[in-house]
Design brief:
The structure holds two protein chains of two kinds.
Chain A (H helix, E strand, L loop, with lengths): L10 H31 L30 H37 L1 H16 L2 H12 L3 H28 L2 H8 L4 H37 L11 H7 L2 H4 L6 H24 L6 H4 L2
Helix pairs in contact in A: 1-2, 1-10, 2-3, 2-5, 2-7, 3-5, 4-5, 5-7, 7-8, 7-10, 8-10
Chain B lengths: L1 H5 L4 E12 L7 E9 L3 E5 L6 H7 L8 E10 L2 E2 L5 H7 L4 E4 L3 H4 L6 H5 L1 H6 L4 H14 L18 H13 L5 E5 L7 H16 L4 E6 L2 H7 L2 E6 L2 E7 H6 L4 H23 L10 E12 L9 E12 L3 E5 L6 H9 L6 E6 L2 E2 L9 H6 E4 L3 H4 L6 H13 L3 H14 L16 H14 L4 E5 L7 H18 L2 E6 L2 H5 L4 E6 L2 E7 H6 L4 H9 L11 H12 L2
Helix pairs in contact in B: 8-9, 9-22, 9-23, 16-17, 16-18, 17-18, 22-23
The chains are: A mainly alpha, B alpha/beta.
Chain lengths: 287, 563
């Protein structure tokens, strides 16, 4: 009769979880601070040519110069808000689109669900990068086009998750009680269902942010993303590729920056979903 | 007394000063418990959820749930200390000296494997019998447990037998190695009353016919009265009282036990009371607030139109204003589907529900706000009936706003009033459902229904998931509110005696059809349909001799029903 939830996670695991969370949070917090206040600490203007040599060690330049003799460290700092800001906004777009469509599909069911789900099936069957390339080729590459395209492309998987989560909650008695009272779809989805699927959606948001960051960086790396003189991390890798053949580390630094954010996000979600085991599994949602 | 005479047998199990605590700290699950079981004796452990009765029954097998640990005490089974015993020792003991029968047989059998190999597993694991000898023993057990075609039924898969049969297979599994102690953990709680009778009878024969000791864990006092030689009452992890069954049932010493016994006694008195009321004449036609005729409803779509599975089959009913109509039936009778049809959640494929003589739209979407307000539904599982993310105040406030557009400050005073009506303190408004007990949650759902200011209340099994005393209190509350607010109530339940205490009229459903309807007293004392008679006969009474012959009588009635 009494259903006590057994303690699944032993004590030492909870300490490890806290360390994981702390590492993730520190890395991510550091990057956010840099994105906000990086312009205060950068030693040079990121567009100034400080040396006639490329990939050269230069006085005051922490990571040396880039392929055109500009300060790589300053460029990395000024690329941070571009990369993080665009990724965040694009993820936001994907969640706004995906969650509202997913909830609509779950609540309306029938033909509405069928049509939306099949559209999403088509979207998921096309490789993200190809869709991105096509849109950018057609509309040109601007920051807003990039954000909207990326958000749209990733909204398909968000739709799937939101729809599945909403379907689970929809059949519970408190939703039926609200239905029996005659509540409309808007209240049912925003007042009854959404608060109960927010945790797994938040976990998905964090993980999705990592994917989106990689995607935007890939577009920039291919030269279709952010256009010069503005440069995000992906563009910085591309610009300095030629350095690799002569054994220079210039393209490695922005690549490391990308990797560190992605790893930090994963660490955070991991620690967080371990904690919420038993109260609705966040990891289950984070596909 | 029989039980005292038996006490001379050798001690099978002795538990002393047992304390089991959560690993993470907090209130002990079991505190300073101690008792002794002699050979040939059945000890019943009774208590509400969270009383520690399941924890202690598991401990008899030397098992403690993960997250708990034994802090002190000893458990000696036939002279072997189980606490701190080597896993090899425990493995040898389990199945051979002590066996466990769980509440849900359906969850305990592997659905992908046939029954026979699962039942004989204990013999094969312990290497005591060859496969052929084990099968032979299993089949003779099936015969003793009254299973049909005992030599071949074990070749079926678990889903191909009924719930009551599966529970008997689990009992056979427990008896395979002829253990000296059998632990039965709520073995019939998940069964319908008519199935329970037969399972109880074979269980008692299996225990009585040998020198075996048994522990019977239950929350249902009448069931315990049939099975136990001795009764042990637990509450909040402590042993409240222990003694011979007759003594506990007839002269309980502890106040809690007295309350528990009284709760069950009052139910049988209510049946008698309902009989006295049966003279009340049926009121005039105009007083009918809710009615329907020829209702059909079901699930799925058949190609020729209409539902593929008919859950409600040409049902007629009428509810008299400010009276209680009880709808009684077992699982699969269509009683919950009927509730959904009335509430507009399951549109009927034929027939209409009339409210005050006017037809209601089949689905919620077509009903006016006033009609929606007038008919409110309460669900069985209070755990899922409240939005876990919204406080009690927010839940009630939404209904007040939705139906009455009540401004914020007025809402606050009304919420306090509503909570008082269901006898909860006003500060509960700021609590989340997770901070409430099961009974409190059910009170909040009642308050939510009352917030709409309804005329008809549909209660779908609202006390089935609650402990007896908590459920009884809710019943009394509903009966009281009905009088004060002139509510008309449709009370759906599988439990005939419980219904008897409050119903004015009873409607009995079976396989989607109404088999009998009439004033409560008449249905209970002079049932016309054999199924009603079967239902009445199957609900256990406190009388210790009730089970004798009850199974036999039930079997005869089932035959006349011809399924």
């Amino acid at each position: 009769m009494s259903v006590d939830t057994p303690r699944l996670i032993p004590h030492h695991a909870s300490r490890r979880r806290n360390v994981t969370a702390a590492v993730g949070l520190t890395i991510l917090g550091g990057w956010v601070l840099i994105a906000l206040f990086g312009w205060l600490i950068r030693p040079f203007d990121p567009t100034d040519f400080i040396s006639y040599e490329m990939y050269a060690p230069e006085k005051g330049a922490l990571l040396g110069t880039d392929y055109m003799g500009r300060d790589l460290f300053s460029r990395l700092l000024s690329g941070t808000p571009v990369t993080l800001g665009m990724s965040f906004l694009a993820t936001l777009v994907s969640h706004l689109l995906g969650v509202s469509a997913g909830l609509t599909a779950a609540m309306r069911g029938g033909a509405v669900d069928m049509v939306l789900s099949r559209i999403v099936d088509v979207m998921l069957s096309l490789p993200n990068i190809i869709v991105g390339l096509m849109v950018v080729a057609a509309l040109g590459s601007s920051v807003s086009v990039l954000i909207l395209t990326t958000g749209f492309v990733y909204s398909a998987s968000v739709f799937r998750i939101a729809r599945a989560l909403a379907n689970d909650v929809r059949s519970l008695d408190f939703v039926r009680a609200a239905q029996a009272r005659g509540e409309g779809t808007l209240w049912l989805s925003s007042g009854e269902i959404l608060p109960n699927i927010l945790k797994p959606l938040a976990a998905d948001f964090a993980l999705r942010l990592g994917f989106v960051l990689l995607f935007i960086s890939s577009l920039s790396f291919l030269g279709l993303g952010v256009q010069p003189p503005l440069a995000d991390w992906g563009a910085l890798v591309r610009e300095n590729m030629s350095g690799l053949s002569s054994g220079k580390l210039a393209p490695v630094y922005p690549a490391l920056a990308i990797a560190s954010v992605t790893i930090a996000l994963n660490l955070l979600v991991d620690a967080w979903s371990d904690r919420s085991i038993g109260q609705g599994n966040a990891r289950g949602a984070a596909k | 007394m029989i039980s005292e005479a038996k006490r001379t047998g050798p001690v099978v199990l002795e538990i002393s000063d047992l304390t089991i605590v959560p690993v993470a700290g907090g209130r002990p699950a079991v505190r300073n418990a101690g008792f002794r079981i002699h050979a040939g004796e059945t000890l019943a452990i009774i208590g509400e959820s969270g009383s520690g009765k399941s924890t202690i029954s598991m401990a008899c097998l030397g098992h403690v749930r993960p997250g708990l640990r034994v802090a002190a005490g000893s458990i000696r089974l036939l002279g072997t200390e189980l606490i701190g015993a080597d896993i090899g020792v425990l493995r040898r003991i389990r199945g051979q000296q002590v066996a466990y029968v769980a509440q849900s047989a359906a969850a305990s059998f592997n659905p992908a494997s046939r029954i026979d190999p699962q039942v004989i597993e204990p013999s094969l694991i312990h290497g005591t019998r060859s496969r052929e000898a084990a099968l032979e023993r299993a089949h003779s057990l099936y015969r003793r447990l009254n299973l049909p075609t005992p030599d071949t039924i074990g070749r079926r898969y678990p889903h191909q037998v009924s719930g009551g049969q599966l529970q008997r297979f689990m009992l056979a599994m427990g008896l395979m190695e002829d253990p000296q102690l059998l632990v039965l953990d709520e073995p019939t709680s998940a069964l319908d009353a008519t199935t329970q009778v037969e399972v109880l009878a074979v269980m008692r024969d299996a225990v009585r016919g040998s020198n075996r000791a048994a522990i019977f864990v239950s929350h249902d006092l009448p069931v315990v009265a049939q099975m136990a030689d001795r009764i042990l009452v637990m509450r909040h992890g402590e042993v409240v009282e222990e003694g011979p069954a007759e003594l506990i049932l007839n002269a309980p010493g502890h106040p809690y036990t007295r309350e528990l016994v009284a709760a069950f006694r009052s139910i049988s008195e209510h049946v008698a009371g309902a009989v006295a009321d049966s003279g009340t004449a049926a009121p005039a036609q105009a007083d009918i607030i809710l009615s329907a005729s020829g209702l059909d409803a079901g699930y799925g779509i058949r190609s020729g139109g209409g539902p593929a599975v008919l859950a409600v089959n040409s049902v007629d009913f009428s509810l008299v204003r400010s009276r209680i109509l009880a709808v009684v039936g077992e699982s699969g009778s269509g009683k919950s589907s009927l509730a959904q049809v009335i509430a507009g959640l399951l549109p009927p494929s034929r027939g209409v529900v009339k409210f005050n003589g006017c037809p209601l739209s089949p689905a919620v979407g077509g009903r006016s706000k006033n009609e929606l307000r007038a008919v409110q539904i309460l669900f069985q599982m209070a755990d899922t009936a409240l939005n876990p993310q919204r406080t009690v105040g927010q839940t009630l406030g939404r209904v007040l706003w939705y139906f009455h557009r009540m401004p914020r400050d007025q809402r606050r005073t009304r919420i306090a009033e509503l909570l008082e009506m269901v006898r909860l303190p006003a500060h509960y408004a700021s609590r989340l459902p997770g901070q409430l007990s099961g009974g409190e949650k059910q009170r909040v759902t009642l308050a939510r229904a009352l917030a709409a200011e309804p005329e008809v209340l549909i209660c779908d099994e609202i006390t089935s998931a609650l402990d007896t005393l908590v459920g009884t209190a809710i019943l009394e509350l509903i009966d009281d509110l009905r009088r004060r607010l002139a509510l008309s109530v449709i009370f759906i339940s599988h439990d005939l005696p419980k219904v008897a205490s409050i119903a004015d009229e009873i409607l009995v459903m079976r396989l989607g059809k109404v088999v009998e309807v009439g004033p409560a007293g008449q249905v209970l004392t002079a049932p016309q349909h054999p199924y009603t008679r079967l239902l009445i006969q199957s609900s256990p009474e406190m009388d210790r001799g009730w089970l004798e012959g009850a199974a036999e009588r039930s079997r005869k009635l089932v035959e006349t029903l011809g399924n």
